[in-house]
Design goal:
The complex is a heterodimer. Helices cover 76% and strands 1% of the residues of chain A. Chain A is built from 14 helices and two strands. Chain A has a two-stranded antiparallel ribbon. In chain A, helix 9 packs antiparallel against helix 10. Chain A is globular. The two termini of chain A are 55 Å apart. The relative contact order of chain A is 0.13. In chain B, helix 3 packs across helix 9. Chain B starts with 8 loop residues before the first helix and ends with a helix. The chains are: A mainly alpha, B mainly alpha.
């Protein structure tokens, strides 16, 4: 039909009018849609409430201990549930030594692998296969790492320590850190690789144009310009190390004393909870363990928020 | 013509090569460790996997043989109930985040999801102990599933969001222009288009929780007998690895190795499924 012809237009309009009532949604459809939108919003609010609920629950359950122990809980050196004497310093130290040692052991490997996969060979089949193999490390459950460490790492550590004339069972901070460092590798590698591969190409080209070798480009351009991103990667790995429970529980030797060397048996905050929570009798004992959990929750939350903030900033900049 | 020798170029080149080889060696170490661990687990465990492992209950100390039937049943129960709780919830939060992208409220929720992902699993177990175990007065499979469901949420939410964001707006607008409601548009257009990504999110979530012990210690607790009751304690494979693997009895350790192979094999298969389908089902426009 030719445009502008009266017949054609009216036909079109009349069709529209006829079909309009069908377009309108029935009441039940509108209601369904409303319920749908409400439940979507509700689920999002639920996730936020979940976190608030976590915090409040821990606070509530730890309240008796917070009142009974006071601030000396943080630097008390003895953990003696029989006498209702609770100090968490040994576990705080144990956690910090274990986590940082693991981080230091894994750091060179993580940066090396991240450079390999992010800078030297970012694409290609071989690089893909190697990346997937490293990521498989993240697929192995914590408890299996612990079990494997008990049979493979612990005997080595034990013979090594006997050679140094240190009497030990092989269980202790060092074994736990070694296994923990392996567990951290897939996370730090993938975080740092992403950061490194986002380095602006102009920066690298400028350095090459000035006659830098690849090593110099890496040392003087890529690593310094990504310093904050890389540290965020390590920070997030640290957060994971602090909360890691099962492998550490199996390997650390479960001792409530202040560790006096990196090979001595100890306990981390998480492994202490795993070891004692089910056997805890008495309200202060249980509440003290919950207080440690509360601290763990607060620290990992802060670390995650910080890491997220830094990574956001870095990716906005680029 | 004279070639100009750049000062110290030989030394710098040598340094460059040395650094390159150091990077190669470090990468090789990471790859080797991964392969060695997996190889060791399978080599040690494959001899412990037999028909009895899947069909029998554990025997008491001193008797050889026995299996982990109760743990397999318990693990399946825990994981499937957790999946039933977490998958719809996770998908709907993912839809919310994709819908409200860039708005302040979406930002707040995605911060919460990131923090939730970082909460140590043992803390999740403690909170669920207070929420579910204490009111019911008994360790139960249900409480374990709730704890696992919470741990499963973040990967599902993230994958759903990332998939839905990739779907072009025109597709959604076309559906809305035809008069379909948001509900219909989401159900008939968005979710079917992004099903691959959502599916792999669910698989990753299951892979994440299948090997968890820490949240189960104070919730599912463990049970030496076969139990199908949601309101009773149940055994699970990771728990059996923890309890039997750290025991001094050889028979029990053999069972733990068998359990490790089953568990790691299951998780690896899930990962391969995700990898396999990721490339095929990727939303492409």
């Amino acid at each position: 039909m030719v445009k502008g012809e009266p017949g054609g237009r009216s036909l079109f309009i009349s069709k529209c009018i006829v079909s309009l009532p069908e377009l309108e949604m029935s009441n039940s459809k509108v209601l369904k849609n409303k319920i749908f939108l409400k439940s979507i919003n509700g689920s999002a609010i639920f996730v936020m409430l979940l976190l608030v609920g976590f915090f409040l629950t821990l606070l509530y359950a730890a309240w008796p201990a917070l009142r009974a122990n006071g601030f000396s809980f943080l630097w008390g050196k003895t953990w003696d549930p029989v006498r209702d004497n609770y100090g968490m310093l040994p576990f705080l130290i144990g956690t910090l030594i274990t986590s940082f040692l693991a981080l230091f052991i894994s750091a060179p490997f993580a940066i090396g692998a991240a450079l390999f996969l992010g800078e030297y060979y970012p694409h290609g089949t071989v690089s893909n296969i190697l990346r997937n193999i490293i990521e498989l490390l993240a697929a192995i459950p914590s408890v299996v790492y612990g079990f494997w460490g008990l049979f493979v790492i612990v005997p080595y550590v034990q013979t090594f320590e006997h050679k140094l004339n240190i009497p030990s069972s092989g269980l202790g901070i060092f074994s736990a850190s070694l296994v923990l460092s392996i567990m951290l590798i897939p996370y730090s590698v993938s975080l740092i690789r992403q950061v490194i591969s986002m380095t602006p190409i102009q920066l690298k080209e400028a350095a090459y144009a000035l006659g830098c070798t690849r090593t110099e480009v890496i040392m003087k351009v890529i690593l310094p310009s990504n310093l904050s991103g890389i540290s965020a990667g390590f920070l997030l790995s640290l957060g994971r190390a602090l909360g890691e429970t099962m492998a550490v529980t199996i390997l650390i030797g479960n001792s409530p004393k202040l560790p006096n060397s990196i090979v001595s048996a100890s306990n981390t905050m998480a492994s202490l909870i795993a070891n004692e929570f089910n056997e805890a009798v008495g309200s202060t004992y249980t509440a003290s363990l919950v207080e440690i959990g509360l601290l763990l929750f607060i620290v990992t939350t802060i670390i995650n928020l910080l890491g997220r903030m830094i990574i956001k900033k870095v990716s906005v900049k680029l | 013509m004279t070639t100009v020798e750049i000062a110290g170029i030989k030394r710098r080149r040598a340094k460059d090569n040395v650094f390159r080889y150091i990077v190669y060696v470090l990468t090789f170490c990471c790859v080797a460790v991964s392969l060695i661990i997996l190889f060791y687990i399978f080599q040690k465990g494959i001899t412990c996997v037999n028909w009895d492992l899947f069909t029998k209950l554990p025997k008491p100390v001193g008797e050889s043989g026995g299996g982990v039937l109760n743990a397999i049943v318990g693990s399946l129960m825990l994981v499937s109930v957790a999946a039933v709780i977490a998958i719809p919830l996770g998908i709907s939060v993912g839809i919310f985040l994709a819908d409200n992208r860039g708005k302040a409220k979406a930002d707040r929720v995605s911060i919460a999801v990131d923090v939730l992902q970082g909460v140590p699993s043992i803390v999740v177990g403690m909170v669920i102990y207070v929420w579910v175990v204490k009111p019911l007065g008994i360790f139960s499979a249900l409480s374990g599933s709730v704890a696992l469901a919470i741990m499963m949420l973040p990967p599902i939410i993230k994958n759903t969001e990332e998939t839905l964001v990739l779907i072009p707006n025109t597709l959604k607008e076309a559906s809305l222009a035809l008069g379909a409601s948001d509900f219909r548009t989401t159900m008939r257009i968005l979710l079917p288009t992004g099903i691959g990504g959502i599916f792999s999110g669910a698989m990753l979530g299951i892979a994440r929780i299948a090997g968890e012990v820490a949240p189960l210690l104070f919730t599912a607790f463990g049970n030496p007998y076969l139990s199908f009751n949601l309101f009773k304690p149940v055994q699970s494979i990771p728990l059996i690895i923890f309890n039997y693997g750290t025991s001094p009895y050889d028979d029990w350790r053999r069972i733990a190795w068998g359990g490790s192979v089953i568990l790691v094999g299951f998780i690896l298969i899930l990962n391969f499924i995700v990898k396999f389908f990721e490339s095929r089902w990727k939303v492409q426009f």
